[in-house]
Specification:
Number of helices: 8
Number of strands: 14
CATH superfamily of the largest domain: Fructose-1,6-Bisphosphatase, subunit A, domain 1
Order of helices and strands: HEEHEHEHEEEEEEHEHEHEEH
CATH architecture of the largest domain: 2-Layer Sandwich
Strand order of the largest sheet: 3-4-5-6-7-8-9
Shape: globular
Oligomer: single chain
CATH class of the largest domain: Alpha Beta
Length: 269
């Protein structure tokens, strides 16, 4: 397990090095699913660096990577989320922030066994922080142990969330949920544009809870193992244990997690 954790960290740092070197040279910017879902040449280059770092140590590794072009460019075999072992990578989580120069974007690298995240690393590039964890080994920030906090009441909680690319029904649900939390009232609300970083904020105890709809496994897989190892509870937005089929996430210490779910359930599907 330690070897996988070390490799996840090494790969995340390789991607971060590419991103840092190209802050002022992002190349072509394209749209994907919608006009607000963008990808840059840096996303691709970072993904290649991550995949090649893993392949040098594990030449038979399989991958699920957000940016499809990376598979061919890095000669990285495609895997599936249900494989016995697969690496799940978001080479640049927070591309919109990167594009605008907002200092919050990350590299997220996780390894899953039979759909369960067992090791992962999230490198917050502008902050130069590596948050990492592996099953049974605890969670760390730049090598020092971390844990989620024990805030027990929503009225004392600082929460994190994000907004979906789908600006229709999913956005309506998110805005309704946000309003419900704000009227609880919670202590405060923050949004920084990287779901992977949001997970680490909860794991570090900087924020008390995180929820978001319309996410993909590469957004959260590394964050899930980090959260679990920090002592947080992690489920989907229905309260079921997080899985690679989940399209949403709720994470907090166990006492606060239950209260967050109570609020979310008042909104409905």
């Amino acid at each position: 397990m330690r070897n996988l954790l070390d490799l996840a960290v090494k790969a995340a740092l390789a991607g971060a090095e590419v991103i840092s070197a190209r802050v002022n040279d992002m190349g072509t910017v394209r749209v994907k699913s919608t006009q607000v879902d963008v990808v840059t040449d840096v996303d691709i280059a970072a993904g290649v660096a991550v995949a090649k770092t893993i392949l040098r140590q594990l030449p038979d590794a399989g991958f699920v990577i957000e940016e499809e072009e990376v598979h061919a460019l890095a000669t990285a075999p495609r895997g599936t989320l249900t494989d016995a072992e697969v690496w799940v990578i978001d080479p640049l989580d927070g591309t919109t922030s990167f594009l605008h120069g907002f200092p919050c974007y990350s590299v997220s690298v996780a390894v899953l066994r039979n759909g369960v995240p067992i090791a992962g690393a999230v490198h917050n590039v502008p902050a130069q922080e590596t948050i990492a964890a592996a099953a049974g080994l605890g969670a760390t920030k730049n090598g020092a142990p971390i844990q989620c906090n024990d805030t027990a009441q929503l009225t004392q909680a600082l929460l994190m969330s994000g907004f979906p690319y789908d600006r229709g029904a999913t956005l309506d649900r998110q805005l309704a949920t946000l309003a419900a939390f704000m009227r609880t009232p919670i202590h405060g609300m923050r949004r920084d544009g990287s779901a992977a970083v949001d997970c680490t904020h909860v794991a570090c105890g900087r924020a008390d809870g995180f929820w978001e709809y319309s996410l993909r496994p590469w957004d959260t897989a590394a964050g899930v193992v980090i959260l679990r190892e920090s002592g947080a509870r992690v489920t989907d937005t229905n309260g079921e244990p997080w899985s690679t089929n989940a399209t949403g996430i709720v994470a907090a210490n166990p006492a606060l997690h239950a209260q967050m779910l109570d609020v979310i359930r008042t909104i409905g599907a």
